[in-house]
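User: structure tokens for this one?
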Amino acid sequence: MAWFKKRDDVKESSERLYVETHGAGDEQLVFLAGLGGTTRYWSTGVKSFESSYSVTLIDLLGFGRSPKPWTRYSVERHVTALHDVLSERGKVTLVGHSLGALIAIAYAAKYPSQVEELILISLPYFGSKDKAYEYFRGGTVRGGFLFTNVFLTMLTCILTRRVFGRLLPYFVRDLPGEVVKDLVQHTWRSSTSSLWEVVYRYDASADFRSLPKLFDVHFIHGDMDTTAPVEGVKVIAASRPNWELILLKGADHHPFLRETQKCIDLITRILSNSRSKNTR
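Assistant:
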């Protein structure tokens, strides 16, 4: 859409992404939330890792307490903002949820020597923009058509933030209240542009193929995830013998919130195995 590109020449904020770092371990875990998510998405669950790892939570560009410039929120723009924070931190393991998982892939493809491995939760991979549109308009996702009409998505975002924001916790009862409150910590520009540029238009398969052969990727996915169906992820996970897909029975798009301890145990096991492999 041309309107995404109209003001790309506007000088962008020099502020850096909002970052929280906890723990004092030598190994670094970096957590990236999905569309509309913030550091709060992870804050309770990741406390389990703070005794052994340096845990970093980051609000992606345009979300939470990070800058929200008027810009095209392309994959490249997100990766550049993230690299501005991570470039001085040495090797990291990236843990991403949904949109954050896509940004994590793109980051690892561009800076493979800086990323130890990827843990991707609820990765939205459809194969193409047309297939994504077809899926959302097929009726499986409630209000799916809304999310493939750019102007309706923009209008919904504005109304949610400015009119219904304080009421969301009363209507969205299947997510923790604090997380729901954070769903309005963005702008219509950052939310809508990120959805179109990253979720719909970004071909993650090319970046997956570019990763080094011995690079480890772990997929954690709910078998009841209707927002990001697992079929595409199964194809990607099967493309390398050292890539692992872990299916959680009965879990939807938010397994880290629904089954926090199970996800913590899985991530702990993945990290432990990586430690063992690296010390051989």
